[in-house]
Amino acid sequence: MPSHAFNVAMTCEGCAGAVRRNLAKLEGIEKVDTLVADRKVVVSGTASSDDMLAAIKKTGKECSYIGQV
């Protein structure tokens, strides 16, 4: 299953929780790892990276796609 990494401007666990909740709404998401200290999110699943990025952007946090890992 593919995993995708994103840079996300998270400053606390509240931010990370918002990211996880938005990604959980997508079909095909299997696992979400939020690394607040690194400002990085790694998502595993069959959803497209574009859909994942759009879901993260809905949190209002600055974010960008790093690539498949």
TrEMBL record:
**Which Pfam families does this UniProt record tie to the protein?**
HMA
GO CC annotations on file: cytosol
Q: Where is the HMA domain?
A: 1-64
Q: Name one GO molecular function term.
A: metal ion binding
Keyword annotations of the record = Chaperone, Copper, Copper transport, Ion transport, Metal-binding, Transport
Superkingdom of the source species: Eukaryota
Q: Give GO terms for biological process.
A: copper ion transport
Q: Which family does it belong to?
A: Belongs to the ATX1 family.
The protein in question is named HMA domain-containing protein
Q: Which organism is it from?
A: Capsaspora owczarzaki (strain ATCC 30864)
